[in-house]
Amino acid sequence: MIHKIEALLQQVEAFKPQAAAEIEEFRVRMLGRKGELNIVLEEFKKVAPEMKRELGQRINNLKNAINERIATLREEVEQQQTPEESQRDMTRPGTADAIGSRHPISLVKNEIVEIFSRLGYTVAEGPEIEDDWHVFSALNFPPEHPARDMQDTFFIQKNPDLLLRTHTSSIQVRTMEHQKPPIRVICPGRVFRNEAISYRAHCIFHQIEGLYIDENVSFADLKQSILYFAKELFGEKAQIRLRPSYFPFTEPSAEVDVSCNLCGGKGCNVCKHTGWLEIMGCGMVDPNVLEASGIDSKKYSGFAFGMGVERIAMLKFGVKDLRLYFENDVRFLRQFDSVF
Ligand code: DAH
Predict the structure, then answer these.
(1) DSSP 281
(2) Residue 99 maps to a domain
């Protein structure tokens, strides 16, 4: 037994941990419940009484040696740490990283989608890389229409039938091809046009399209739906007016103006002193468009509308430089958090 105690003492003195965690392992191995010291103490119970005094003292020395060694090693580790590390309070709550905010375009898009969902519209989506049929032909664009011009549209070189959609009206066609009336969809999405970037134009922007097809849908339904939308978005006082216009896919077609929410219709810089702001195009879906997607134009009629999300955001937030919506400078983006 004396040998065993001596051997342990030597181990204690020779112990040189490589890492701080080894000190704790060593403590458990020596002083733990099933550790070396307890094994020795078990044996100690069995030794002859005359041996007890001397052995007891040796065991005590061993125990002190272990404790001292551990204390010294722990102190060494502590000193190796930088003052900052040893003073670090691990119980303090962490500092939370600032989380981002919703992009103003997403906020406006969500608001518009929500307003129309209250009228029973559901969201439909479509691909950004489209074919000529869904963007132009099925929407009654004649073959020589200037919108098909390379100057306006990004075509895919490998396959001239493929292009980046120039409007979300393509989603109307896809919806009509796949659903039977009644149809009531709102279609948000990104669109692409071959434009030089300036404060008022961008080659990428966002649109929201709406489509309502059923039996006996009239122009009065269109006007009332748009009026409801304008009041929900710009406030109860908002008024609308419709001006005759032209789109290949609607007949009749109109541009919708909303009364200027900044000057209350009196005339200001934003509304160019007219009291009105242009917000969207709309019209009754042309029978050719219904037929192209396999819908019986004798039985069904409908209306459609389309608006630019950036344009609505400009009017809502008074931010007139389009480029700000694409630069993603957080100092700009953070300002819109609590608008809705
Ligand atoms: N697609 C048109 C554009 O990009 C917007 C539009 C106008 C959509 C009238 C419609 C509509 O559905 O009826 O300018």
Answers:
(1) E
(2) no
Structural domain harbouring 82: 2-86
Parallel, antiparallel or unpaired: strands 240-247 and 204-214: unpaired
- Let me know whether 300 and 326 are in one domain: yes
Q: Which amino acid is at 157?
A: Q
What is the model's pLDDT at position 337?
A: 72
Q: How many domains does the chain have?
A: 2
Mark residue 120 as left, alpha or beta (left: phi above 0; alpha: psi -120 to 50; beta: remaining). left
How far is the C-alpha of 301 from the C-alpha of 295, rounded, in Å?
A: 9
How many angstroms separate the alpha carbon of residue 194 from the centre of ligand 1? 17
Atom of ligand 1 nearest to the CA of 207: 4
162 and 39 inside one domain: no
**Distance, CA 318 to ligand 1 centroid (Å)?**
23
* Residue 80 CA, ligand 1 centroid: distance in Å: 71
Assigned domain for 96 exists: no
pTM attached to this predicted model:
0.73
Tell me, yes or no, whether 79 and 179 share the same domain: no
Residue 164 included in any domain: yes
Give, for 216, the enclosing helix (H) or strand (E).
none
- Element spanning 16, H or E: none
As a whole number of angstroms, the distance between CA 101 and CA 107 comes to 10
Kindly provide the b/e burial profile for residues 1-35, where b requires at least 16 CB atoms within 10 angstroms of the residue's own CB: eeeebeebeebbeebeeeeeeebeebbebbeeeeb
Q: Are 165 and 128 within 8 A, CB to CB?
A: yes
Instruction: For 32-57, write each residue's pLDDT tens digit.
Output: 999 999 999 999 998 888 888 888 99
Per-residue pLDDT tens over the stretch 191-220: 999 998 888 889 999 999 999 999 999 999
Report if residue 35 sits inside a domain: yes
Q: Is the dihedral of CA 289, 291, 292, 294 positive or negative?
A: positive
